[in-house]
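REVIEWER CHECKLIST
Item 1: Sequence provided? yes
Item 2: Single chain? yes
Item 3: Sequence as submitted:
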Amino acid sequence: MGRLDHCYNIADLREVAKSRLPKGVFEYIDKGTEDQISLDNNRATLNATKLLNKILVDVSDVQLDAQILGAKSAMPLIIAPTGIAGLTWHEGELELAKAAGRAGVPFTLATGSNTPMEKVAQESGARAWFQLYMWREKELSYELVRRAAKAGFETLVWTVDIGHGANREHNARNGFSQPYKLNARSIVDMLKHPEWLATVMGRYVMGGRMPEHVNYPEKYQMRMTGGGKRAAGHATAMRADRVSWEDVDRLRDIWPGKLIIKGVMRVDDAQMAVERGADAIVVSNHGGRNMDSAPATIAVLPKIVAHVGDKVDVIVDSGVRRGSDIVKCLALGAKAVLAGRATLYGVAAGGQPGAEKALAILKDEMKRTMAYVGLQRVEDIDQDIIWRQD
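Item 4: Structure as written out by the authors:
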């Protein structure tokens, strides 16, 4: 019996991932930023949101089919962009994308992925979305956008909530960086995890390269230089601190598909995204990974939906670990959720089969929750099922 057979929920997949991965890699996935306040609050707020069960109704035909940006999805879930997937499993992005294709849900490839976008688009069989970071040299970002369009990606997700980067102190303590850099701490960490060393890092090295950001422009692919150092000025060049709403207009001009703005936490920003022609927004605090004082996304979601939910699709992320979490998000107005860590734990635990296991767990839990609240169709989920204390 394989280790996936003993995984009955996302938490179990997380434990397998923790045992497989070097500490630096695992904590990059698992932790948030600074004191982990925003990370913990995402889960605490979801846990505090309660649902009312409904009795003596027909729930013999519960279906999870949903419309996401005008196309059918097997459930109201999209795999979120996670730039480190390629360090959890060899070409982990492709493994995740194949799992998404098998499950009938969209997959979002991160800008910082370790697998070429063309390979993901051609081999995964999934509805392929591409996530963008805007760099100071904006034309380089536009080149990436054009490349994604040519490769066949249908939706562009612009992540806008990064500013000056995040203060993830655990990365410094673990000697971890992106791309993966060899130093005393990371080497010791690797040697403690021989399976990962052989099947992930070893496969990259045997292929003639270290894991690197292969979809970046050539000058910013962050390859290792002598002594393990990066090129001078790299961090400043990659910093997205000179952006404005006019950049949405420019993306609309050059991107032929759907455009999503990810990182919205305010009503006025949501309204501006609508005015600028976004097809959807993602209410997101980056999974608690950026600003540690951010409120939980599910707390700000209803007000944003009330103002723009009739104009664009509102998607939400940050904290989804159970199928019941998806139902709660939909009840509060979201059209779908982005799941990041949940499926990343899956691929880290077992590649494509592990990712498929994560998606199957979430699907089964969501279906069971819908039966409890007396609903058979996703479009019927609304705030009536939310328990509110008088």
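Item 5: Key structural point noted by reviewer: Strands lie at 66-68, 71-73, 77-79, 107-109, 128-132, 155-159, 258-264, 280-283, 313-316, 336-339.
Item 6: Recommendation: ____
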